[in-house]
Design a protein that fits this description.
By secondary structure, the protein is α/β, with parallel strands linked by helices. The chain is built from 12 helices and 10 strands. The protein has helices at 2-8, 12-21, 39-42, 53-57, 96-106, 127-132, 136-139, 146-153, 184-188, 191-196, 198-214, 216-221, and strands spanning 28-29, 35-36, 48-49, 66-67, 81-87, 107-115, 156-159, 162-163, 229-230, 234-238. A 4-stranded mixed beta sheet has the order 5-6-10-7. A hairpin with a 5-residue loop joins strand 1 (28-29) and strand 2 (35-36). Helix 5 (96-106) runs parallel beside helix 8. The relative contact order is 0.12. The model has no long low-confidence stretch (mean pLDDT 91). It binds S-adenosylmethionine. S-adenosylmethionine binds at residues 49-52, 55, 70-72, 87-89, 92-94, 99, 191.
Length: 239
């Protein structure tokens, strides 16, 4: 298992999760109950789809082959993939529902990491949006409901709590490490800031810095220090 994790570049914990949700199953188990992966289990043929030339240009050497296309019109035949996956991207699509239907068409299974705006008051789940960047709500104004997106692909939804030391640099990653949002390079890896514009960004950062310096942030958010993970609205749709 350690070797498979090394070869495939995913952690042992992630491989266990893939097994549990049926994305990548070991073909056998050893007598001691360890998962045993054959060469076929490990071999994956991944094709990326990316409409942005800038993003395509930033793909590291050795990444999966990438097609210049958009989710709303996938250049693939029906059922030509085992799994179609979309991570933190649906809110960027011009027509999310059309893109999801396309994923359903081309793959036997569909996995989508997205955001739940169904719950009233969802804007207040994360202190950054609630207290410093209310403009974030407008970014998701026309976003379809989680229920509609799940129905489009026939999926069930599971909450994805964000661990306090989340290694991905997504918008919600630093909920317990507020100083991180003061760093320009951290914000530049999050598309939200570009979407709200430089004025809102500068104001949010200024107010956050003031509140961290004065102790006001700690006063308001003291309850977070005891949490290891927080549900900030991320949801995994699995079909
Ligand atoms: C926040 S990034 C997420 C990238 C990657 N999935 C990850 O988790 O690191 C969103 C990506 O969606 C791409 N995108 C925007 N519109 C799209 C569309 N209509 N179809 C497919 N991808 C799109 C953007 O170019 C960008 O690369």
């Amino acid at each position: 298992m350690g070797r498979v994790a090394e070869l495939s570049g995913v952690s042992v914990r992630t491989l266990h999760h893939y097994d549990e949700i049926g994305i990548a199953r070991p073909s056998t188990r050893t007598a001691a109950g360890y998962r045993a992966y054959s060469a076929d289990d490990v071999e994956r043929h991944v094709t990326a789809v990316e409409p942005s030339a800038v993003m395509r240009g930033q793909r590291p050497a050795g990444s999966a082959p990438c097609l210049a296309a958009a989710a709303e019109g996938l250049p693939f035949e029906d059922r030509s993939f085992d799994v179609a996956m979309a991570v933190s991207t649906v809110h960027h699509w011009g027509d999310p529902m059309a893109g999801l239907r396309e994923m359903r068409r081309v793959a036997r299974r569909v996995v989508v990491l997205t955001f739940d705006t169904d719950e009233p008051g969802w804007q207040d789940r994360f202190w950054l949006t609630r207290d410093y960047l209310p403009e974030f709500a407008a970014v998701l104004d026309d976003f379809p409901s989680l229920g509609d997106m799940a129905a489009a692909i026939g999926a069930r939804a599971e909450p994805v709590p964000v661990p306090w030391d989340c290694a991905d640099g997504l918008f919600e990653a630093y909920w317990r490490r507020p100083d991180a949002y003061l760093q320009t390079h951290v914000r530049r890896a999050m598309s939200v800031w570009t979407r709200v514009g430089p004025e809102a960004e500068q104001r949010a950062v200024r107010h956050l810095r003031d509140d961290l310096d004065s102790g006001r942030w700690a006063e308001r958010n003291g309850d977070l220090t005891g949490l290891d993970a927080a549900d900030l609205g991320l949801r995994l749709l699995m079909a």
